Amino acid sequence: MAVPIEEAIAALSTFSLEDDQPEVQGPGVWVSSQRSATQSPIEYTDVAAYRLSLSEDTKALNHLNALTHDGKEMASVLYTYRSCVKALPQLPDSMKQSQADLYLETYQVLDLEMSRLREIQRWQASASSKLAADMQRFSRPERRINGPTISHLWSMLKLLDVLVQLDHLKNAKASIPNDFSWYKRTFTQVSGQWQDTDSMREELDDLQIFLSTRWAILLNLHVEMFRVNNVEDILQALIVFAVESLELDFSLLFPERHTLLRLLPVLVVLVTSSDKDSESLYKRVKVNRLINIFKNDAVIPAFPDLHLSPAAILKELSTYFPKFSSQTRLLTLPAPHELPSREAQEYQRHYLIVNHIGAIRAEHDDFTIRYASAMNQLLLLKSTDGSDVDWSKEVKGNMYDMIVEGFQLLSRWTTRVWEQCAWKFSRPCKDASPSFSDYEKVVRYNYSAEERRALVELMSYIKSVGSMMQRCDTLVADALWETIHAEVQDFVQNTLATMLRTTFRKKKDLSRILSDMRTLSADWMANTSKSESELQSSQHGGEESKANIFYPRAVAPTAAQVHCLQFLIYEVVSGGNLRRPGGLFGNSGSEIPVNDLKQLETFFYKLGFFLHILDYSVTVATLTDLGFLWFREFYLESSRVIQFPIECSLPWMLVECVLESPKSGLLESVLMPFDIYNDSAQQALVLLKQRFLYDEIEAEVDHCFDIFVSKLCETIFTYYKSWAASELLDPSFLFASDDAEKYAVQPMRFNMLLKMTRVKLLGRMINLRSLITERMNKVFRENIEFLFDRFECQDLCAIVELDKLLGVLRHSHELISRDLSVDSFSLMLNEMQENISLVSFSSRLASQIWSEMQGDFLPNFILCNTTQRFIRSSKAVPVQKPSIPSAKASFYCGTQDLTSAHQSFARLHSGFFGLPHMFSIVRILGSRSLPWLIRALLDHISNKITSLEPMITGLQESLPKSIGLLPFDGGVTGCVRLVKEHLNWETKSELKSEVLHGIKEIGSVLYWMGLLDIVMRETDTMSFMQTAPWLGFLPGADGQILTSPDGGDSPVVSLFKSTAAAMLSYPGCPSPTSFQIMSKQAEAADLLYKANLNTGSVLEYALAFTSAALDKYCSKWSAAPKTGFIDITISKDFYRIYSGLQIGYLEESAQVASNSHERLGDSVAWGACTIIYLLGQQFHFELFDFSYQILNIAEVEAASSVQTHKNSNFAVQGWETLLEGMKKARRLNNHVFSMLKARCPLEEKTACAIKQSGAPLHRIKFDNTVSAFETLPQKGS
Amino acid sequence: MARAGGITNAVNVGIAVQADWENREFISHISLNVRRLFDFLVQFEATTKSKLASLNEKLDVLDRRLEQLEVQVANASANPSLFAT
User: Fold this and answer.
1) Is the domain of A727 the same as that of A822?
2) Which GO terms describe its molecular function (chain B) (predicted)?
3) Residue A427 in contact with residue A620, Cβ under 8 Å?
4) Which residue among B4, B25, B82 places its CB closest to the CB of A571?
5) Which long-range contacts (CB under 8 A, 24 or more apart) does A678-681 make?
6) Residue of B nearest to A536 (CA)
7) Which residue in B has a C-alpha nearest to residue A140's C-alpha?
8) Quick count: other Cβ atoms within 10 Å of Cβ A738?
9) CB within 8 A of A786, min separation 6: which ones?
10) Which residue of B lies nearest to A831 if distances are taken between CA atoms?
11) Same domain, A315 and A360
C-alpha cells in the first residue's frame, strides 16, 4: 500500500531547506495548476449543467472573450509597431538602375506589416458588428433569453475597451500612416506590370481611410450599434454598473478599475449621441456623479507611456459626435495640462507617492506583522491535530481576511505607481533646457531624488509583500478554499433560508430564484448537524431557527457557480429589466426590504472577489507587475531614436539613486528595480510577444547589471575603507578634535547584499556574492599597487605613510572578511610585492627601499646625532621623481575628511627619517626581506671602503713623511698654520670631499643599522614576552633568561601532550590521530620559537662585517711600527688622514657658517671613528689628532692668559668658532668611541651571524673574512 | 415577462451538485498536493544552489591558495642547488 499523500508531503517538510538568502527581491517562480478563474475557465462549459437556460448567454460570452483575446494581440502589434521606413536604405547614384529592385524588396517587406494592419482593420469591423449585435440581442425589452449575466457585462466592457485602445493606438502612432504612404508609393511602382490590381487598389484606399481617420473604430462601432434603436438600455446599464462599481471600489483590482475609468467617458459619449432622449441617462445617474469620477481621476493610465484623461477624451470626441457637444457640463472639465495651478497642486499632492510614503510605510509594517502572525497561527493549527472547530475556523477566516487585505493593499499601491507615472507623463518637467528630449523631460528630469527614493521604497513594499504572499500560496490555499466554502454555504444555507422563510414567502418567482441559488451551490453533505430528512425539510423552507453548522470542506466554488450565483442575485434585484430606473442595489422602489438587499449586495461583491482569491498566484503576479515602468514605445517613435540611453531608463535611475544615497537606508532594496526588468521582459515575451523588445531589455539589463556591480563594489570598498580608517584614528586626537563627528562612519548594511548568491535576472540566477568577491580581490590588489606606486614616487620618509595606509587597507580587509571570503591579505601583499617564490628574498618594496637608500638617502641625507634623525641636506641635489599618481579617495582612506586626517599625521613624518620610519620598514619588510636589505647595505659598506682605498692613498702621498706633535709655543694661530703646511692638499680638494662623502655614507649605514638594531630589539622583546610563558622561560635575577626549573618539556608541549593522551584514552574519540598531530606540531613550534629567542644584534654584526672588510687594508692604513714602539711621527695611518680631513672641514664650516656640516652631518664622525676604532687606532687618534692638539693648546693658552690677566682671550681670539666646532667634534667622537667599545669590544673579534632563516647565531668565534658573511642572501639573487 | 431562474430539474441538479462537490474535493486535494510537491522541488533547488554556491566559494579560495603554493614550490624546485647542503 502506498503511503498516503498527506504523509508523504508532510515528510518532505522534514527536509532542512534552510537557506540564508535574504528576501530582497520580488517573487520569481510561478506555479499555477489551473487556468485562471477570472479569464473564463474552460469557457464556462459547465454552466449548462445548472440548467439555468443560460446557453445563449454563455455562447455569446465566450465569443466576446475570444474576440477580446484576439484584440489584445492586435493592440500589442500596434503598440510595438516601429517604423520600417526609417530603416530603408538610400540608393547611391551609381545604383540608380536597380531602383526597381529596391521598390520590390521594400514592397515585400512592407507588405508583411501592412497585411497585419489590414487584418486589424478587418478584425475591428467584425468585432464591432458582433459587439453591437450582442448588445442588441440581450437588451430587447421583450426578452426571450436569459442574460446578460454580470460576466457577460464584463466581457462587453472588456471588448469595448480593447476596441477603444486600438483607436487610441492608431491615433497616437504616426509612423503607421507614414509607413503606409511609402507602401502605397512602392505599390504603384511595383504593380505597373501586374494585372488586375483594381481590387488591391481599392483595398488599399480602404485601409488608407481607416488609418488616416481619427476614431475610425469608434465611429464604426457607433454606426453598428445604432442600427437598431435600443442599445441605449444596455449602455445605460453598463454605465450604472461601472459607476456603482467605481463608487464602491471594493471588489475591483486596479486593472479592472482602470478599464472602467477608461471606458466611462466613451460610454457616456455613445449614450448621449443617440437619437433618443439623451437626457434619460441622467435620470438614472446624476451628472454630478459622473463629473466626480472624472474629476477624481484626472489622468488614467492606459499604456505604459501614454496616459488618457477623461476630460480630453470627452473634448476630442465632441467634435466627432455632434450630439454630445451639447453636454456643456462635461465638456468644461479641464484636461490635466489645462488645470489651473492651484488645482494642479492639489492633484500633485494626491498623485505623488512621496506625499503618501509615510502612511504607506505604516500600512506596510502593520500589515506584514499581522500577516505573519496569522501565518503563524495557521502553521500552529496545522501542527496540532484534533483541534477545536471554532478555533480552526477563526484562524482560517483570519488568514482569509489578511489575504483579501493584502490584495487590496497591493492593488492600491500599484495603482499609485501607475498613476504617479501617468501624472508625470502628463506634466513634463518645466525648467528643462531645450536640448532635452521629450522622454528626458517626462522621466529623467521629472523625478526628484526624493521622489525616486519614495518610488523605490514603495516598489520594494509591493515586491516584498508580493513575494511574501506568493511564498505561502500552497500553505494557505486550503484554508482559503475552506473559508470561501463556508461563506458560500453560510449564505445559501442560512441567510437564504431565513429570507425564504420571511421576506420572500409570498413572492413566488423571487423565491424560486432564491431556491435555485441554493440548489446550484449548496453542499448539504458537508452539513453534519442534520440528518438527511432534516436536510430535505430545510431545503424546502423548514422552520428550524438554528443556524446550520458546516463540516469544513476545502473546496472552493467553481467559476461557473460564482457566475450563476451573481447572475441570479442580479436577477433578483433588477428583475431582469435593464430599463429599470435607479442603480443596481441602490433603488428604493424595489419590493425587497433594505436589509435583505444589503445582504444580497454584500454577497454579490464578495462573490466577485472570490475569483481573485481562487486565482491566487495570477492575482499576485498581476498586482505586483511593474514592468510598465520600462516601456516607452510612443516616446521612441516621437523622438526618432532606436533606443534611449540607460540614464533615461527609469529602472536604472532608481538603482543609481539608491547607490548614490547609500545613507537613505534603501540599500537592501537596490535589487528591486531589477525586478522591473524582469517584469517587463516577461511582458515583452508573454503579453506583447515581441522578441526584439526582449532583446533590447536583455541588452539593457546586461549593461546595467555590470555598471551596478562595479558601482556597488566601489561603494562597499569605500565604506569598509572609511570604517577601517576611522577605527584606526588616534582616539586622543578624536577626543581633542572639535568636529569628531565628521570622522565617524555611519554604519551601512551591506551584509544582506553580500549574502545574495541567487539574484534572479531574466530567468538567470546570478551569484552576486561571487561577483563582488572577485571584484574585491581585484580592487584590493589595485589599491596595494597604487600605494606602492605612490611610495615609489616619494622618498624614503614616505614609508610611514605607506605603512599607515597599508594598515588601513589591512584593517578594512579584516572587516570585510567577516562577510565575504576574500583572498588573504598577506597573499595579496606578497603577490603585489612580487615575492611569492620561496627562494626570493628581495621584494618590490625591499628593492625600492634599497635603491632609494643608495640613490637618495645615503648621499643626500645627513644625520643629526642628538635627535637621532636623518634629514635631507639643504645642499643636496634634488632627485628627479615621477609625479605622485593620484587616485580616488577610496584608495586612501575612504572619505575626504579621513584622508586628510591621516595625511596630516603622515606629514609629520615626511621631513625626516628616524625611529618611526625604521619601525615601518621592519613591519613592512618582515623577517623575509630584511636580511636581504642588510646584506645589500653591508655590501655597500665594503664597496665604499674599496673605492675609498685609492683616494686615501692619494691623500697619503701628499702628506709629509713625518708629522710631529704640534708645538705649544706657536699658540692656536701658529698651530693652525703649521697644520696647514703639513696638509698640502690644495690640489686635491675634490678628492678630499669625495673621501669625506664616502666616510659619511659608511657612517650613515652604520647609524642606520644602529636604529634598526633598536627597533629589532623592541620587536624581539615583544615576541619574547608573548612566547616566554609558553616556552617556559623565566627572567633571571641578572636579566638573563632561565629555563623553567622543572626541566623537560616546555608548557606548550606538555599541554598538548597531556591533552592528546587524555583524548586517546577516551574511547569515543572520533579522530585520535589529529590530536597526535597537534602534539607533534606543538613540539615543532616549541623548537622554532626557542631558536628564535637567541637574537643577535644587527649593529654588532654590521661592525664585525666592517671590521672584516677593513682587514684587507689594515696594512696600508696602519703601518705597524718597525721598532715595536709607537711612532708618533708616522703620517700615513688612516687616523692622520681623517685628522686632516676633520680639521679641514671644521675650518671650512667655521668660515662659512655651517656649510660643510650641512652637507655631511654627524655621520662622518660615525664612519671615520668606526674605521679608526676597528683599525685599532683609537688611542693614536685621541693623542695625535690635530684638532685635539689644538684644543689642548687653546686650553693651555686660555689658562695662561687667565693667569696673566692681560689681554684675556687674546691668543684664541678669532678662533672661537673653530674651537667650538672642534669641541663638538671631540664630544661626538668620544660618544661614538664609547658606543663602539660597548658594542664591539676589540679584545676578541667576535661577531654574530645571521642564518638564512633569519635566526642569528649568537656570539660565535668568527674568522674575519668577508666570505664568512656569505650566509646572508645575496643582493640580486 | 419571463423571469430568470427556474432550474428545470431541480432535484437532479441538486444531486449532481452534491456529487460535484465531493469529486472536486478529491481533485483539489490532489492538485494542491502536487503543487506542494512542486514547491518543495523549487525550494530544494534554491537551497541546493546556495549550498553549492558556498561550496564553490570555498573551493575558489582553496584553488587560489593552491595555485600560490604551486608557484612557490615550482620556483623552489627549479633551483635545487639552493637546497644542497
Assistant:
1) yes
2) identical protein binding; protein-containing complex binding
3) no
4) B4
5) A678/A26, A678/A28, A678/A627, A678/A760, A678/A761, A678/A762, A679/A26, A679/A624, A679/A625, A679/A626, A679/A627, A679/A630, A680/A627, A680/A628, A680/A629, A680/A630, A680/A631, A681/A627, A681/A762
6) B11
7) B1
8) 6
9) A885, A887, A891
10) B68
11) no
Interval B35-51: pLDDT, tens: 888 888 888 888 888 88
Across the A/B interface, how many CB contacts are shorter than 8 Å? 173
Instruction: Answer yes or no: are the C-beta atoms of A780 and A828 closer than 8 Å.
Output: yes
Beta strands in A507-626, from DSSP E residues, in sequence order? none
Which one, of A634, A623, A637, lies nearest residue A308 by Cα? A634
Residues A1169 and A1218 in one domain: yes
Angle at A458 between CA A457 and CA A463, to 5 degrees: 100
Q: Name every chain A residue with its beta carbon within 8 A of the beta carbon of B32.
A: 474, 477-478, 554
As a whole-number percent, the residues of chain A with pLDDT over 90 amount to 24
Residue at A728: amino acid letter: L
- Structural domain for A895, as ranges: 710-757+767-913
**Could you give the ipTM of this predicted complex?**
0.88
Q: How many domains does chain A have?
A: 7
Indicate whether A407 and A544 sit together in one domain: yes
Give kind and range of the element (H or E) at residue A761.
strand A759-761
**Where are chain B's structural domains?**
10-77
State the nearest Cα–Cα gap between B84 and chain A, in angstroms: 13
Taking CB atoms and an 8 Å cutoff, what residues of chain B touch A838? 72-73, 75-76
A131 lies in the same domain as A270: no
C-alpha to C-alpha distance for A1035 and A1088, rounded to whole angstroms: 20
Is residue A945 in a domain?
no
Q: Nearest CA to CA, how far is A953 from chain B (Å)?
A: 40
Same domain? For A1250 and A1226 the reply is yes
> What is the distance between the alpha carbons of residues A715 and A660, in angstroms, rounded to a whole number?
9
- Is B29's CB within 8 Å of A757's CB? no
Euclidean distance between CA atoms A1246 and A1248, whole angstroms: 7
**Residue A871: which H helix or E strand, with range?**
strand A869-872
Q: Is residue A934 part of a domain?
A: no
Query: d(Cα B42, Cα B26) in Å, to the nearest integer?
Result: 24
Determine if residue A612 is left, alpha or beta; phi over 0 gives left, psi from -120 to 50 gives alpha, anything else beta.
alpha
Instruction: Find out whether B47 and A19 touch, Cβ atoms under 8 Å.
Output: yes
Q: Are residues A594 and A632 in the same domain?
A: no
A923 domain-assigned: no
Q: With 0-12 CB in 10 A as exposed, 13-18 as middle and 19+ as buried, what is A1093?
A: middle
Q: State the DSSP string of A432-483.
A: --TTS-HHIIIIITTS-HHHHHHHHHHHHHHHHHHHHHHHTHHHHHHHHHHH
CA distance between the termini of chain A = 79
Could you tell me whether strands A1256-1261 and A300-303 are parallel, antiparallel, or unpaired per DSSP bridges?
unpaired
With b for 16 or more beta-carbon neighbours within 10 A and e for fewer, the A218-236 pattern comes to bbbbbebbbeeebbbbbbb
- The pLDDT value recorded for residue A545 is 40
Asked if A827 lies within 8 A of B53 by C-beta distance, the reply is no
Q: What is the grid cell recorded at A662?
A: 547609500
- As a residue count, chain B comes to 85
Q: What pLDDT is attached to residue A533? A: 41
- Please give the Cα distance from A814 to A822 (Å, whole number): 9
* Minimal C-alpha gap between A474 and chain B (Å): 6
Contact at CB, B73 and A474, closer than 8 angstroms: no
| C-alpha cell belonging to residue A527 | 452539513
Domain-terminating residue out of A602, A623, A644: A623
Cβ atoms of A505 and A490 closer than 8 Å: no
- A411-430 per-position pLDDT tens digit: 999 999 999 999 888 888 87
Q: What is the 3-state secondary structure (H, E, C) of A985-1002?
A: CHHHHHHHHHHHHHHHHH
